[in-house]
Design brief:
This protein has about 325 residues and is of the alpha+beta class. It has ten helices and 14 strands. Helix 2 runs antiparallel to helix 3 and helix 5 packs antiparallel against helix 6.
């Protein structure tokens, strides 16, 4: 079992319940493990999310242990807990691996199950499911090493290139120069084994949080960068998040409805976030992907949307835990 790095977590975070921290009755208190860190490229974001969730649950009066976990260190699974709150972003945390481990151990946990997590994380399989159920998604192709040149010649910039299985916009590129396309494809394929090339949709970027099957208010994202990349998501302080969206009400309502359908199609549960691009000319929404473990940092979008309807960060964490507690495991 690995305790979370002390550089990222203060000593009192590692196990709490000290006098003065409880705001709920002892009968309502739960023993909760928060999993944070992990082995993916999104480790630092995961640590920040985990810390925020941990602190919220402590304020609510729960007894909380925050632990790191990886395929080579599964000690956190053996820690007694009423519920496990997974705050692991990216590979291992969002692709069904840790969920399958918890299921085999008979542990109750928050969020999507192993099957749904694996499906959502694979952008190609998720897109196939969207197409089958007539949920619009940008045109795409899968690129492997032997097809790089052929695909680069067949597609016309601007396009989006990204890994098939990754999150937080890690190694995601908007390619605007045709001459750069083959090199970008090669860069992503060399690192990840394959790549997704996707039609670029020009227009506003929206996200719709889902809590217990119900959509939260849509949020428009306006980064100061070329697109909403890792820097804009987690580091920049000048990215704009707008609830007053300059789109017709029927477009926003349609996006709401499609968001609920999209997460149902992929079998999501408890909470998730559905990301969209809306064509500036036609106002047609195109689903990009679903995040089964969206961020819980100061920049994160699901907490912002929940707060919009009066659900505080602490209340959001409590609701997610109680959704898990309704299940046997």
């Amino acid at each position: 079992m690995t305790q979370v790095d002390n550089a990222a977590v203060t000593p009192d975070m590692q196990h709490c319940g000290a006098k003065g921290t409880r705001s709920k009755s002892a009968a309502a208190a739960l023993q909760i493990t928060v999993l944070a860190g992990g082995p993916s490229d999104e480790r630092e974001v995961s640590l920040a999310s985990g810390k925020a969730v941990h602190d919220a649950l402590v304020r609510l009066g729960h007894s909380v242990t925050m632990l790191d976990i990886s395929p080579d260190d599964l000690g956190a699974v053996d820690v007694p807990a009423d519920c496990v709150f997974i705050a692991l972003h990216g590979a291992f945390g969002e692709d069904g691996q840790v969920q399958r481990i918890l299921e085999r151990a008979g542990k109750r946990y928050c969020g999507c199950d192993a099957r749904s997590s694996a499906l959502v994380m694979d952008k190609v399989e998720a897109k196939k499911a969207f197409i089958t159920h007539e949920i619009p998604t940008p045109r795409f192709d899968v690129v492997r090493k032997r097809r790089i040149e052929a695909v680069a010649n067949a597609w016309q910039a601007p396009v989006v290139v990204k890994p098939v299985r990754s999150g937080s916009s890690v190694d995601t590129y908007i390619v605007r120069r045709q001459t750069a396309l083959a090199d970008v494809l090669r860069r992503v394929v060399d690192k990840h084994g394959d790549a997704l090339i996707e039609q670029y949709i020009e227009g506003p970027e929206l996200t719709v949080g889902i809590l217990d099957g119900r959509p939260l208010p849509p949020l428009e994202i306006r980064p100061k960068r070329d697109f909403y990349d890792y820097q804009a998501k987690y580091i920049d302080d000048d990215t704009e998040y707008l609830f007053d969206i300059d789109l017709p009400a029927e477009v926003l309502e349609h996006t709401h409805q499609l968001s609920v359908r999209a997460q149902e199609v992929l079998g999501c549960r408890d909470f998730c976030r559905v990301d969209w691009m809306v064509d500036r000319r036609t106002h047609e929404p195109f689903v990009l992907e679903i995040n089964t473990i969206p961020g819980f940092t100061s920049h994160s979008l699901l907490p912002k949307a929940a707060a919009r309807i009066g659900i505080s960060f602490d209340e959001l964490c409590q609701k997610i835990v109680m959704l898990a507690m309704r299940r046997k495991t």
